[in-house]
Amino acid sequence: MKLTLDPGAAALLDALHAAGYAAYAVGGCVRDSLLGRTAHDWDLCTSALPQQVMELFGTEQCIPTGLQHGTVSIKYGGQLYETTTFRTEGSYTDGRHPDAVQFVPDVREDLARRDFTINAMAYNAAEGLVDPFGGQKDLQNGLLRAVGEPQQRFTEDALRILRLYRFAARFGFTLDAATARAARQLAPHLDCISAERIQEELAKLLVAPQPGAYLEPAVLAVVLPELTPAALEAAKPVVDACPAGEENLPVRWAALLGTLGEADTRRVLKRLRCSNACIEETAVLVRETAGEGVCGSFLLGHESGHSIARPTACGSRVPP
């Protein structure tokens, strides 16, 4: 199989190979390329140690973004390419970050530490696709599955539970049964994740085309305890009926949280560290639909959501 590499990524891989190091494009860029989508961030992995990467490309071209974890960002052609040494990880005492990493010579050991099979593939022009966990087949089958033992993956890093539903919603994939079961069982571990990271993942989930089916009650009970199970079920079809995309995130938040009322909606979004603009716009939408129930009429379509709610919330700062 041959993929078209970003020119900068291809040039950096060639330079690493010429210096005698193994190197690959890895993760999301490989996944998106296999899906026929444009990959915006090209991450690389290599057998070269961070110091060797910096010696090869020079300190002016390199930013030591995470040397303790083996990561150097290389500036090339006006872009940054995050380049990480093959590694394995130790225990995760805090349920979020590895206590230590160990550099290894084989990319397959590195791929084994990653979250989902569709993100655990590597590629270079010489070897083609390196896919030890069946990520390409899972992409073809529309399946999201943890690498190895799901319980271990989610115990290592609880944020992966939210990432599971976010990726599934983004691509419209089915969840592997064992992976979904482990995510539900370990959802209480999300209480160790910062509000900012929870908000970031929830926002990415909500802007997906049809996120309703991926708003898992066991997970929402932990990250949005203010929302009752009945309110969540009622909100799901309304969220799906609202326009998708990042520009419509406040509309989706309002559809999800509308039954809480304006004051509690503000409190929830403030707790999640949402931006002031997002809080204000969402709160206005909730206020304006008060009395219409969760299915407030102008939450249900792009015309009303944009032309009424947005100018009311933000005036001329948001285009109609």
Give a description of the structure.
The protein has 320 residues and is of the alpha+beta class. The protein folds into 3 domains: 1-141, Beta Polymerase, domain 2 (2-Layer Sandwich); 142-223, Hydrophobic Seed Protein; 225-320, no CATH class. It contains 15 helices and 11 strands. The chain has helices at 7-18, 28-34, 50-57, 107-111, 135-141, 150-156, 159-171, 177-186, 195-206, 217-223, 229-241, 249-257, 261-271, 276-288, 302-314; strands at residues 23-26, 43-46, 62-66, 71-76, 79-85, 87-89, 101-103, 122-124, 128-130, 143-144, 174-175. Strands 3-4-5-2-1-8-9 form a 7-stranded mixed β-sheet. A hairpin with a 4-residue loop joins strand 3 and strand 4. Helix 6 (150-156) packs parallel to helix 8. It is elongated, with a radius of gyration of 22 Å. Mean pLDDT is 90; it is low at 294-298 and 301-320.
Percent in helix: 40-55%
What is the strand arrangement across the widest sheet?
A: 3-4-5-2-1-8-9
Largest sheet: 7 strands, mixed
Strand content: 5-15%
Looking at the structure, the CATH topology of the largest domain is Beta Polymerase, domain 2
What is the β-strand count? 11
The secondary-structure element order is HEHEHEEEEEHEEHEHHEHHHHHHHH
Using the coordinates above, name the CATH class of the largest domain. Answer: Alpha Beta
CATH H level of the largest domain: which superfamily? Beta Polymerase, domain 2
| Oligomerization status of the protein chains | single chain
Coarse morphology: elongated
Structural class: alpha+beta
Residue-averaged pLDDT, rounded? 90
Low-confidence stretches: 294-298, 301-320
Question: What's the total helix number?
Answer: 15
Question: Distance N terminus to C terminus?
Answer: 45 Å
Number of individual domains: 3
Estimated radius of gyration: 22 Å
The CATH architecture of the largest domain would be 2-Layer Sandwich
